[in-house]
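Is D-malate placement plausible here? Inputs below.
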Amino acid sequence: MAPINEHYLKLKAGYLFPEIGRRVRAFQENNPQAKIIRLGIGDVVRPLPSSVIQSFHAAVDEMGDPKAFRGYGPEQGYPFLIDAILEHDFKARGVTLKSSEIFVSDGSKCDTGNIQEIFGAACRVAVTDPVYPVYVDTQVMAGRTGMIDAQGRYEGLTYLPATEANGFSPDLPKGKIDLIYLCSPNNPTGAVLTRAVLQRWVDYARQNRAVIFFDAAYEAFITDPAIPHSIYEIAGAEEVAIEFRSFSKTAGFTGTRCAYLVVPEALKGEDASGNPVSINALWHRRHTTKFNGVSYPVQRAAAACYSPEGKIQVQETVAYYLENARLIRAGLAQAGFSVSGGVNAPYLWVKTPKGLDSWGTFDKILSEAHVVITPGSGFGPAGEGFFRISAFGLREDVVEAVTRLSAVSFVP
Ligand code: MLT
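Reply from A.M.:
I modeled the complex. Tokens:
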């Protein structure tokens, strides 16, 4: 028999969301009459905007026309989409990037998971805690960690706690780190990194020759004009940061799949002899070897998000989810919960009621309110004592979920 990658055996039994799905299915089988409201996984519910659908349809028609048909496209993405990204996501915010620095992909989950491949096995990696599990699990798969301990921390990874005490904005690492994952607006806490805080991270990375993986998949939900949407709004970031963006949560592409990452040409790593190596060139090599590009109709659909109507429609969708977040925040606060997030983000981070841990709260809320939330401990040890609610729901479901959650009796 072929030997397997032993590092996979170190992984916790299941990925968080399938485990939640398993518990919800079991509950539904035993309670077929229960009308379950799902505010667990951050999956969108609103349909694709009409301008996106029109472009999508037109591009599918082109694929059926012998004169317009396209086979393989450029692996990095079609220029029409890359140009729109450069213009609307960056130039409009005073950031100048080159088209060679954008790599269109099929999702930020894949990108944030795959990016570590082009870095050395000995890299010291820091993650915030709680954290999007993909950042951690892919480090485990790559062999950069030891075993998981009783608290749920993998040996060899540096965990930077995001707690109530630090306003869910983790402190800088104490020692030298090579790779750092940051996510703002944050999944799961809904917290945002201010300009001053991001500047400190960029300065740390420059002093320590570290690379920041900046997950900005939720940037469209920022309502505070003082909060940066891109790490490249921070001086010097182009020398130390890779940024991840997605069409999933803004334009409803979770099932359609389109995202991109930015790998600046100024960003360098080093080889074993200490010679600088272009990270952009390495990622280009990796991307063009392992990926054949996002389909042409999907890229046309994504580009429509930047048309005048598309922009308005995407803003409407974002505003809809933000209003959900406001309703959840206000309703739960009224019911006595301690709630943060949900102002510049589609996620709310809620303290578990007295006497209940994260999974205990999940089970009680599922069984008594028939609402699915996400247990905070699923995002890391510092998530224990919290749960996450996603604002990606239909308005009537969100309103109903708040009513039901307010009615659950927790131990005072
Ligand atoms: C989440 O619920 O954390 C997200 O749906 C994860 C993802 O986007 O992959």
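Short version: The radius of gyration is 21 Å.
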